[in-house]
Predict the structure.
Amino acid sequence: MEENTVIFGIRAIIEAIESGSAINKVYLQKGLRGELFYQLEKLIKKHKISTSVVPSEKLDRLSKHNNHQGAVARISPIEFYELEPLLETVLEETSTPLFLLLDQVSDVRNFGAIIRTAECTGVNGIIIQKSGSAPVNAETIKTSAGAAFKVPICKVDHIKDAIFQMQAAGIKLVAATEKTESSVYVVDFKQPIAIILGSEHKGVSTAVLKLSDYKAKLPLLGEIESLNVSVACGAFLYEAVRQRM
């Protein structure tokens, strides 16, 4: 599939959603009305697909001036995994899986860098939330150096649901956060682990922190109070690698 695949036309987008295509984002023209549009709007809400209301000129550019009927969608270049069957498969293959949960990481270059490091460190899967997360688009693929085609990525309705599923499967959740006194170097990464990384601006949300089994931070010896999320990800993952070698 082309990295920048777009589809246009309300009915075509409806059919794509109903067929299970991985839709990154839907762009809608302001003031759109009609029965078919309301059907599309209902599907977008049901599947929690990211949307933007844009001028018709942007839709013209996206569709290369084809008859878009006020709606254009970008399709993801990868197929996403379902969390439950992925967990089952991974747990059959290894007793010490390593996962990443991204709590609203929204920058595509950070996301791509995280995917690349995840592939290099043997991560078994990355879980993101359907709404508020960076899309897997051409820039993500490029920044990941193609790793996005190699590491299973799951989209879930809510990160909290994924946490409950993982804990039920015996996987411990460690949140990367500065809101703790515990160091990353005291966490036991030799057990089944999922590392939670938060958004670029807010970090791991309070609700998610409350559900995590461990909270851990990296030592910061300078004056800046936080690391870039992709850099923090690498530090956490390579501590896991060091302990497991």
